[in-house]
Write a structure and sequence with these properties.
With 128 residues, the protein is mainly alpha-helical. The chain is 90% helix and 0% strand. The protein folds into two domains: 43 residues; 85 residues, no CATH class.
Length: 128
Amino acid sequence: MSGVVKIAAAAVAAALCAVVVRKQSPELALALGIGACALIVLSCSETLAGLVELADKLAETGGLSARVVEPVLKTAGIAIVARLAADFCRDAKEGGLASAVELAGTALALAAAMPLMTAVLDVLTQLL
């Protein structure tokens, strides 16, 4: 719980600073937001690594291969990165670019999930 409070406090502080700076230098405000976002993501890196380890352990315990678990983790990572990038594009008043990032993220997430869909198809084929 204290981790989310620290992250929320840092985000609010960065947002307030960006609002103050935006009037004089919109570019600096955007850079401040990107920097704060990077620090917040880095502060979560240990937690994210722990989640990946847990997913691997669950897959191993359940008898699932990495071929099944890895696409799920990749898809989640792609979604997070695409969402952050699109939001920054919107902050920079580049709505079209934000939409393009979201579209690319969707396409790449589907491509990352391809091995999982192939494994499901293999199982269905074996059942028939």
